[in-house]
Design goal:
The protein is an all-alpha fold. It has one domain. It contains 16 helices and two strands. A two-stranded antiparallel ribbon has the order 1-2. Helix 3 crosses helix 16 and helix 5 packs across helix 11. The longest helix has 31 residues. The chain is globular and about 55 Å long. It starts with 16 loop residues before the first helix and ends in a 5-residue tail after the last helix. The model has no long low-confidence stretch (mean pLDDT 95). It comes from Microbacterium aerolatum. This is ER-bound oxygenase mpaB/mpaB'/Rubber oxygenase catalytic domain-containing protein. Keywords: Membrane, Transmembrane, Transmembrane helix.
Length: 365
């Protein structure tokens, strides 16, 4: 088939099944990652990377519910941390393609698709794999910086995605959103989703500290308990929220979000329907509504929800639990694992689950 035959009537590449699924190169950077526990430390002990079997982080991360819903929860939580949104608005490929007029639903899908699988080496790989992937992410985020987070509040200053503060919050919002996901959507131990004990929740944040150090977080800010995490939110509360002015490009005064969604419609082709389904209907639609109902009241307030909307969000998440149960069953979970974590991510997850089962006895389908 010629290249021309692979273009739609608007000049964009047709989204085939193969292009939608992607190959390992969509996620892989600096070579294939090595699963935790398959290399040795200098002292001859097994290298389990940042966390390892028996950790609460692996208990949370390896659950089928987390595999399916991780990106939606992370995306929602990070959409309330204003420096992250400023970076997307000013520097993300979605922003650049919006300025060029070429952004499509596949671009939205593919950006989200790469997220989980590109983080997997840091969460489930050996130390070298974790450090290699962080080096790559830090390099590409070095240019993601600006003097203005929000034109509506220029006094709150600028942002730097590779800087200590914003890299720390990127890591913490990833990890805290997974904890909310696990406690609210993960069916386990023959029970409905339920919260961890206060002791295990504190242990979770104690373990997350290793990830914070990897990304260069300020040592004095790194939380080691749920109370520390709450105090950190209070300290940086001015950086959370979703004012409408966040979408305004500082240089032009135009609304990035309105421009992008207008182009999605203008550049749409029927071959993009699967990308629209996964990105628009599920990840940025239904799954994010589940994430909203599973987050804290303060987080929903940061999203702009009043008491009534917040109540309905929580109710909606509860009513959706039968659907959530189905989505974390084997067939559906395997589909999402390959689609959103990629071939390398699948290998990392399977290897980590084997180790976790050996240590804890928890089995995975």
């Amino acid at each position: 088939m010629t290249e021309a035959a692979q273009l739609d009537d608007k000049g964009f590449r047709i989204v085939t099944k193969e292009r939608l699924e992607g190959n390992a190169q969509r996620w892989r950077r600096f070579g294939e990652p090595t699963p935790a526990g398959q290399t040795l430390n200098a002292d001859g002990t097994l290298d389990y990377g940042l966390f390892g079997p028996g950790s609460v982080v692996w208990e949370v991360l390896l659950h089928p519910a987390t595999i399916v819903f991780q990106y939606a929860f992370q995306g929602l939580m990070q959409s309330t941390y204003r420096p992250v949104i400023a970076g997307v608005r000013d520097h993300d490929p979605l922003s650049r393609k919006t300025l060029k007029g070429t952004v499509t639903f596949f671009d939205l899908f593919e950006r989200g698709q790469r997220n989980s699988g590109m983080h997997a080496p840091m969460w489930l790989g050996d130390t070298e794999s974790a450090e290699r992937m962080w080096k790559h992410l830090k390099n590409i985020h070095t240019k993601v910086a600006g003097d203005i987070i929000d034109v509506g509040e220029p006094e709150i200053g600028g942002y730097a995605a590779a800087g200590a503060r914003d890299a720390m919050w990127a890591a913490l919002t990833e990890m805290h959103s997974m904890l909310w996901l696990y406690e609210n959507l993960a069916f386990r131990d023959g029970k409905l989703p339920h919260k961890l004990s206060p002791e295990k929740r504190d242990q979770y944040f104690t373990e997350v500290a290793a990830y914070c150090r990897l990304v260069g977080a300020p040592e004095e800010d790194i939380p080691h308990s749920k109370a520390d995490m709450d105090a950190l939110y209070a300290k940086y509360s001015h950086l959370f929220g979703t004012p409408a002015t966040m979408a305004i490009w500082p240089d032009t005064g135009e609304d990035f979000a309105k421009q992008m969604f207008g182009l999605f419609k203008r550049n749409f082709h029927r071959s993009q329907l699967p990308a629209l389904w996964y990105a628009g209907v599920l990840d940025h639609g239904l799954f994010r509504q589940l994430a909203a109902g599973s987050s804290s009241g303060k987080m929903r307030q940061s999203m702009g929800m009043g008491p009534v909307r917040s109540w309905f969000a929580v109710l909606g998440a509860k009513l959706a639990l039968p659907f959530v149960w189905v989505m974390q069953r084997g067939r559906f979970e395997r589909h999402y694992m390959r689609l959103m974590w990629g071939p390398d991510g699948v290998k990392l997850i399977q290897a980590a689950r084997k180790l976790q089962t050996e240590v804890t006895g928890r089995k995975y389908r």
